[in-house]
Amino acid sequence: MLLFIFALAGIVIGFAMNRLQGRKNQLQNISDIRGLWLPIAGVLLHLPFSYFPAFALQFAWLLTTLSSLCIVVFLILNRGRLLPVLFIAAGTVCNYSVIALNHFRMPVSPAALAMYPGMTPETVYAKKVNYFVATSGAKLYFLGDVIPVPLKWVGGFFSIGDVLLGIGIMIFIISVLIKKYPDTPEPLSQS
C-alpha cells in the first residue's frame, strides 16, 4: 500500500507541475519506459506468499530473488533516470539483504506490532508467511519492517527499503510525466 501511495503522489505531483507550467501532461512519455513489465512481474512474484503459502515457503529464496532481479533489470534498462534509479536500487538492496539474511523472511518489529491492539505474531504470520516478528532478534534488524504507520487504510509496517523504493518510484513517475521533448518540425510540403 505504501508504494501505491508514493506512485499516486508521483502522478499528482507530475500533473500539477505540468499544469503550473502551462503545458499538457506528457502521457506519451510512458512509452519511453523500458521493460515496464519487469516491476509488474516482480510484484506478481510475491502473490504466492498470500495465495499459495505452503508452496511459496518452499521456494521463498527463488521467488524473492527473481522478484529483486526483475527490479534490477528494470533499473539497468532505465539507468538514464539516475536519481530515481539510485533510490529504487538502494531500497531493493536494503529489502533483499534483510530478507535473505533472515531465511527469506522479513522481520517485523515487536514495538511496531505493539501499536496495533490485538495484533499478535500469529496474526502477522497468518497474513504473510514470509514475515516474522523479531522477538528474539534478526540480522540487519534495523532494515526490517520497523516503521509503524498506524493509519486505518494505509497503516502497516514499513522498512527503510520500502521508503527508499517509494521515493524512487515517485521521482521516477514525476520525471516521466514532466519530461518535455522539443517539438518536431513539420515536414516541408513538396510542391
**Low-pLDDT residue intervals, each spanning 5 or more residues:** none
Structural class: mainly alpha
What is the tally of helical segments?
Answer: 9
Helix content: 55-70%
Strand order of the largest sheet: 1-2
Distance between the termini: 59 Å
N-to-C series of helices and strands: HHHHHHEHHEEEH
Oligomer state of the chains in this structure = single chain
Shape: globular
The proportion of residues in beta strands is: 5-15%
What profile does the largest beta sheet have?
2 strands, parallel
Task: Describe, in plain words, how this protein is organized in 3D.
The chain has helices at 2-20, 37-44, 47-51, 53-58, 60-77, 82-101, 110-114, 121-127, 160-178, and strands spanning 106-108, 131-133, 147-149, 156-158. It is mainly alpha-helical and 191 residues long.
Secondary structure: elements and pairs:
Blueprint (H helix, E strand, L loop, with lengths): L1 H19 L16 H8 L2 H5 L1 H6 L1 H18 L4 H20 L4 E3 L1 H5 L6 H7 L3 E3 L13 E3 L6 E3 L1 H19 L13
Helix pairs in contact: 1-9, 2-5, 5-6, 6-9
Task: List its salient traits.
191 residues; 4 strands; two-stranded parallel sheet; mainly alpha; globular
